[in-house]
Amino acid sequence: MKLQILSLLCGLVLIGAVTAKAQTRPIPPDKPVTGFRFGIGLEGALPMGDMKDLYNYKVGGGLTLRFSKGIAENLDVLLTGGAIGLLPEDLASETYDTNPSILIPVKLGARFMLGNNFYLMGEAGMTFTKIYTITNIDMTTGDVNEGFVNGSTFGYAPSIGVRFGKLDIGLRYETLSDINGGKGLKFEGVGSLNDGNGLSKAPASFLGLRIGFDF
Predict the structure, then answer these.
(1) I need a labelling partner for 127 at 20 to 30 A (CA). Which of 30, 36, 141, 179 fits?
(2) What is the DSSP letter of 165?
């Protein structure tokens, strides 16, 4: 699946490059290069890999705010923040996957314009997580505890997009180094496992679509 996603992104990059080369209209000389913009965007998320198979998330959505500052003719830097909610596979079931979780990203990035409309972009930063999952297993009694786990993790996202005036549409593949934010599942009740050490990191990824409007 990751190979398919990367192939899709590469294809979009190729289309953007060809389209950009075909555009011969010059940038108006009076257009500010180092302008400042503020934008608001609707987010859609399609969980991939373990985020879908292990944590049973089916879809996500939210809202992000983005600040951009031009530093060259075709390059600007970005600061993006907001919140994205993740919905489980089956809200009607009585298992731990009945509760939504929340991602709160704070990312820095750079966007390079391929002509007048298409662009390539990369972002990285911290994502604060509030994940509902199994938090503890007592190996003596067999009791399983569930609840929200608050944490923070590193995330990064390559993306491609298109801008038409104030409309900004971007597609990205976002990866989190540990969806639990460093707060892994704990074992209790058996010898050395009683130290409360968590499991190894649980990377997670999703395909994100942002439809934004710049002011």
Answers:
(1) 36
(2) T
Contacts of 144 (CB under 8 A, 6+ apart): 134, 136, 137, 138
Q: What is the dihedral of CA 166, 172, 178, 179, to 10 degrees?
A: 70
The CA distance from 179 to 204, in Å, is 6
DSSP code, position 28: P
Burial state string for 80-99 with b = 16 or more CB within 10 A and e = fewer than 16: bebbbbbbbbeeeeeebbeb
Q: Give the integer Cα–Cα distance in Å for 176 and 178.
A: 6
pLDDT tens for 75-133 read 999 999 999 999 987 765 555 556 789 999 999 999 999 988 999 999 999 999 998 88
Place of tokens 């900004």: 168
Thinking of the domain 2-23+44-91+98-214, which architecture would CATH place it in? Beta Barrel (2.40)
Q: What is this structure's pTM?
A: 0.77
| Phi, psi angle pair for 166, to nearest 5° | -90, -5
